[in-house]
Structure formats: structure tokens, C-alpha cells
Write a structure and sequence with these properties.
This protein is of the alpha/beta class. It has three domains: 53-257, 2-enoyl-CoA Hydratase, Chain A, domain 1; 276-441 and 489-518, 2-enoyl-CoA Hydratase, Chain A, domain 1 (Alpha-Beta Complex), CATH 3.90.226.10; 446-487, no CATH class. The chain is 40% helix and 17% strand. It contains 21 helices and 17 strands. It has helices spanning 3-8, 28-48, 55-62, 116-132, 151-167, 187-190, 209-216, 222-226, 228-233, 245-257, 276-283, 299-306, 351-366, 384-388, 391-404, 419-424, 448-455, 457-467, 469-488, 491-495, 508-518, and strands at 69-71, 88-95, 98-105, 136-140, 173-177, 180-182, 194-198, 203-205, 240-242, 312-315, 323-330, 333-340, 371-377, 409-418, 434-437, 442-444, 501-502. The strands form three sheets. Strands 10, 11, 12, 13, 14, 15, 16 and 17 form an eight-stranded mixed β-sheet that branches. A hairpin with a 2-residue loop joins strand 11 (323-330) and strand 12 (333-340). Helix 4 runs parallel beside helix 5 and helix 13 (351-366) runs parallel beside helix 15. The longest helix has 21 residues, at 28-48.
Length: 538
Amino acid sequence: MTLTSLRRLPDTSQTMDLTAHRVHRDDFAAYQEGLSALAREKAEVRQHSVGKLTARERIAELLDDGSFTEIGQFAGGNMAEGYTGAGVITGFGTVSGDTVAVYAQDFSIRGGTLGKVEGDKIIALMDKALELRIPVVAMLDSGGARIQEGVIALSQYGRIFKKTCEASGVIPQVSVILGPCAGGAVYCPALTDFIVMTRDNSHMFVTGPDVVRATTGEDVSFEDLGGAVVHNFQSGVAHYLADDEADALDYTRTLLTYLPANCDGAARRWDYRESPEDAANAAALSSLVPESSKQPYDMTDVIRSIVDYGEFVQVQELFAPSIVVGFACMDGESVGIVANQPLCEAGTLDVDASEKAGRFVQFCDAFNVPVVTLVDVPGYRPGTEQEQAGIIRRGAKLIWSYANATVPLVTVVLRKAYGGAYIVMGSKAIGADLNFCWPGAEIAVLGAAGAVGIIHRRDLAKVRDEQGEEAAAAEHERLVAEYTDAVINPDKAVAIGEIDAVIAPEDTRNVIVDSLAALRAKNDARPESPKKHDNIPL
């Protein structure tokens, strides 16, 4: 049996009918390769015509060259009868030399729909990944549950959900959305740690546009309902908006290099030799931050000036931009960074920022990644919209994440930290190990102007009545200066041990590096408790 003879056979839409041909054992390998070649050719024609890579091309793009070992290539097929296999490819390979488990749905086979065989393959792969303690990367491009298999297909999704939950916090799980992902299928990626979507072609929604139109009368497009832009900017479901598939897979590779293989491993460490550029950037840090606490600046510039080689991989960059989270290395050690962003809403905390930061800290803690927190926060965003959206309930999630974290926690207050926002942004009171601040940092219940307006409102009103508005303004300014000197400066926080030291901006990188080194052996094992688990405000 040759590849040429295989090509002459008529093609059915789903299978290659070769029932009239019997394969001699000596020709089995060639026959198998022939089936594989035809399957690849069919996939290329179908996927490339709509601007998408095939499942195998995606796997090759993600993994190191030649490292992929496929598992169950022909599972669900019948080689003697010409069936090429299931609508998902599973196996193992390496990313930067580290082993990962990977599966990719194959849209060229029954639209990548999930049935019994596909579910069994995915579950078997995840079981092996848990046994080996290695990350799982899922590439999703599917029409959902296979209708022809009915409840069997639905139950397979349920099994995958349960297995994903079992793996959560044990091994990193990354989902890359490269096509449609609809209905119950969306909860497979939603349960994983990170979701990457491409700007074009990728969609996620529980109910599609047709169902929405039939039930609500709302006419909505695929993009507006569940496109990548919606989930990166508005819903926060996705963690990265990729320009194309190559960008999506490159980001996934980069992300994996910062993560340990499992919850038992220490934070990733890389060989690092300080460059003159890193030293110069750290020394010039103070020039990036205006002295006035009311002037904005880009916190990402600050982050890049203190991390190795200026490399910072953001997570959820486009969602809740008043807070910045992501991964970097400091002296060769992988760290998670949480920081307020003064460029957006003055860096205030809101419902989305709280959940974004809380989930990130929780991930870092699960996988032994130290957390560095850079604070410049005026407080929580005020208003009825925030209160009605549940800022109390959702803001509590950030508190829970820091309070329960067992990894090294280092915090630096750059300019200000007011009220409840000071507490929740990695303060010592909720569990941070070492806390520092810059000279002149303002740490208080309220900013000086607001505090004076409350404390001295009667006195100021009297001055205004007796001497006029100009005199009242001058008195207000005098009281603000007095309050700042007496209350807001960091002396009080240092005196009670809430701040360990006041440090010069140019020393920030070295202080953080030294702190992380001192905390490397931290073992914050929690005492045995009768409780089954925490009951956080989900």
C-alpha cells in the first residue's frame, strides 16, 4: 500500500473508506504514515483556507523542535478501514527544555467536536500530567459537544471539568483559544490558570448569537458577544490578546518559562549576571516618579527599571488597567509583581482590579512564586456604581489572597497608601514579610487635604466667615502642611514596625533582591485545622 494508491481513493467528508484493502503486517508502518500524510493534507486545506494553522502545526509552533511525542494518534479510528482517528491530538514535548503535556483540538475532523474518544484521550493525558507533575497546555478549536453522541459527549465535558479542578493548584494549566469555544466547552479553559486568545477567529460564549437572538431578540455578532477583544478588555475572561496564532503560542512559551512545573517546585531560577544597563536603570529610578502624589506616571516603567534586563510579562494587561500584574525575574529568580497604575484612575482599586490582583496573588502562592508589591494607591474608587457592583465582596478577595499567601511577600510604598487600600495592598498587617517605603511616602487613613477638611471643618468655616475665602484657603494649606509633618510621613509606620525601613529610590532593586534572598527559605506551613476549606466570598 503506497501513498499514491491512498490518494486515488475517494474521499468521504469524515473518513477514508479503505474497507476493500487489507494491510499486510510488513506494510503497516507505511500504511500508517500514508494515512497520517493524507490527514495532514486535508487539515491544511481546511485550516489554511480560513487563515488558521492545523492542530499539528500549532503543536510544532509551541514545542521545541522535534520534541513532540504523540499519544494515541489513531485512537478512535480503524486503520484497516481507513479511519484516521479522533478530533484531538495529545502528547508530550518540551518548552525551553522543560516537559509539558499538550493537546490540540483538530477542527478538520468532525469540526473538532468532543465525543467519547476525544474525552478519554484528554483525561488520559491529564492523568499522566498529574502523575508526572508537568504543566498542561490546551489548544482549543472546536464545535463543542458532538451532537450525535448526545449525553455521552456532555458527560465527557463533565469529566474534564472535574479533572481540571483536580489539577488546579497542582500543575500550571494554560488554555489557548484558536477558534470557536462555545456552550459548556467554555468552562474547560475558564477553570485553567491562563487563557490566551487571538484577535481574529477565537470566540468564547455560553450561548451563541443565534440562541441570544431567538431568546432575547438581541442581534449580536460573534465578536461583540464573545470575541477576543471583549474578553480581554471587558469581561476579564482572557489574560492575553494575541495578534495571531504565532503571537499566542510565543506568549504561552514565554509564560511557561517563569513557572515551576508543579506546586512542589521552588520558584524558577535562571543564571543572571548584572548588566550595566540594569544598574543604570535602577540608579535612575527616582527620575521616573514625580514628587507630587497627584502627578501620574507609568508604573510599568518603574517595574522595568528594577527587574532583570527590563523584561516584564504582563498578565491581563488590557483588563482593569488601574492595577498591573505580571511576571519578571530579579537576580535570576522568577517573581510575580503586583502594582498600582497611576496612569489609570490614579491607581485606585475597584471591583475588577481587586479580583485581578487577588487571582494573580493566589496563583503565585499556589506555585511558590514570590510576590513583589509596588504601592501607590489613593484608595478605593468611590461611587454608587462600585458599591452596587459589590466592591465589599469582591475587594475582600484581594485581602484573602494576601492573608493566605505562604510565599515570600515584599512590599514597597512609593508615594502614597491611604485607608483600606493601604491594608489590602500587601501590608504587613495582612501577612507581608518585609515592607519598605520611599522618603516622603504618605501612609495614612486619608490624604492630608481630606483629613484636614474633616478634622478642622468647623475651624475653617469660622475663618471663612470672619476673614473670607482667601484666608480660609491659606489656613487650610497651613493645616495640611502641619498634618503631613505630624501624621502622614512614614515615621509613625516605621516606629510601630509596619514599615521596616525608609529606602532611597535608587536602592529599591537591591533591597528587593536582598529581601527575597533572605526569605528564600521561608516555610510558612499552616497548622492543621478541622476546617475543610476556607469560605471566601466567591
